[in-house]
Amino acid sequence: SRYGKELTLAKQRLQEFRATVIKMPTHPSEEDYAAVRSAGVNVFVSVEELLEDIITFNTWVLFSDHFLDTQFGFKREEALKSVTQALGASIKEADKEFTWDESGANTLGTQLVYLTTLRDWLGNLITADRSDLERPPGDYPHYHNDPFADFPFKHSQLWADAAPETLAEYSGLINMVHQQATQADLANIRNGLDHKRDNKQFPAADRMLACISRLEQIVDIVDHRNLVPKLHWRSRTQEDLYGNSTYWFEDYKGATISTGGPTPVIAIKDQNDDGVAYIAAPVDLITAPNTQILFSSIPSSEYSRYWNDYPMYPKRGLPDDSGPSEFEKSSPPQGESFQA
After folding, report:
1. Rounded to a whole number, what is the distance in angstroms from the first to the last CA of the chain?
2. Regarding predicted confidence, which is higher, 199 or 100?
């Protein structure tokens, strides 16, 4: 599909859960409990997907070197691994150890612990020392001294290129999500809905309705502020006679964002090529003209994994003309060209 269904499905499931809870009588029958459980289970499937997206995407945005490593392309596998690198492979809380699963099979308890860690980590970045992350001179592009093409990525992690007040704004967004998730009492509500529990431990209707309201606020925050990897497709391009461009991108509900060009933070594809989806950074981290960061979405599939890091070029100096027997991942030699 052109757009992901995660946010739409989460909103739909929350509405269904709310309607089911409201209809639950004062003295529910086993059928009433079953209906609420069924709707609640679907909601918590969406909750786990949403929390994992929040944690992985925002950690990846701030922790990565997008100029050299990601090249402004979002891959879910890389985002999952960045959580381990930035926040730790495991976190100990209340004498229990929570381990992050880089394949994405993380439980609700682990996600809530890592959401708290993300909040604390981002809050600490506001005043953190950046000197150790300065980019080596050899990693700068040839145009970095051009006064008309300022190079904004002077550090090996994106957060270090952002002003403290910008990081404070970002931290405030994550803190709002964390606060709503904490007040929603997610773990206890989910455990109370467990079919193995006694009906006497079933959550009261007012507690479930309060939880639903908190979750709806989380969905609204992450949707409007792009705190999850939500796809945007280019809807319009406008250029003037001097080479300046404006690009408009549209999400699943028709809301648009725009950015100008030329820009040092994204390589917008040819204006006639509309086959690329983009993901917007939650905050304008660079705060300079035409620096709204948009990442191209790189979907994961058997096909994309097979062709990852291609093309590969033959090693030089082979002993005979029988054809290349080994390949290395490198640029083709200067002055030579290769055909597929």
Report:
1. 31
2. 100
